[in-house]
Amino acid sequence: MRLLTNVTSILSLNATSSNPDRSSTSDVSLYLPRIPLNDTVYVRVRETLAKFSSVTFRELQLTSTISPTTNPELLLDVRLLFSAGRGSLYVDMTSIWGEWASPRFSAQPWPAGNNALPSRLGMDIVYADELIKKAGYVGAYDAVDVRWPKSLPLGKEQPYYCFFMEGDRPTFVYVGMNDQRVMTRLPGVGEAMVDGGVMEA
Q1: 187 Cβ contact list (under 8 Å, min separation 6)
Q2: Which residues on adjacent β-strands are paired with residue 181?
C-alpha cells in the first residue's frame, strides 16, 4: 500500500516541463512542495520488507545530480540498499520525487560493516544539514549516506548521516541520529567523542 497523502507533492517535479520560470532542479526543490525524504523512504522500505521477507535495510544513499551543493534538497539521486543473502537488493528513486523503480538484485555483497537501519529514520536530512552548518562545516557536499556502523563504543551505537564534503578538509562529517553530535571521524572502542571531532579517552 502506498501512503499518498498529497498527490500534488509527488507530481510537483513534473510541473517544470510546463513552467519556464521553474525549469531548473534547484527551483523545483526550493519552491514546490514535496513529500519529506524520511516519509517516502519509510513507505518504500516497508513495502520492500513486506515483499521480500529475507532482506534487511542497510543503507540510504543520496547523491547530487548536478554538482556539489549546500542544499540537502538537491540530493535527488536516492538509493535504498538491502542485504539479500550473500548479495544485495537495490531500490532507486525515479526522476519523479517519491516514485520508486522496481527492486534489483545484485551478486555484489552488501557492506558487511553496517548494522540494520530502522525503517523510520529518527532525524531528517534537513536538520542534519543544519547541525553541520551550526558546527562550522558550511562547505558543499556531493553525497550523503545514512548507515549504522558496527564496532562503535558502548552507548554510541546509532545510525549516522555521513556527508561527503568537497574541497577543503574534512573529507567526511558525521551526525549522530540519536545524540545529534557532529564529528569528523567516528569513534572506536576506547575513544570518547567531542563535538566537532573525536578525542582519545
Answers
A1: 152, 153, 156, 193, 198
A2: none
| pLDDT tens digits, 59-86 | 999 999 888 999 999 999 999 999 999 9
End-to-end, the C-alpha distance of the chain in Å comes to 48
Output the pTM of the full model: 0.78
What is the rounded CA–CA span in Å between residue 40 and residue 5? Answer: 11
Rounded Cα distance, 29 and 14, in Å: 12
Per the prediction, the chain carries an average pLDDT of 81
What pLDDT, on a 0 to 100 scale, did the predictor assign at position 138?
A: 93
**Cβ contact 50:43 at 8 Å:** no
Cα torsion 130, 173, 197, 187: sign = positive
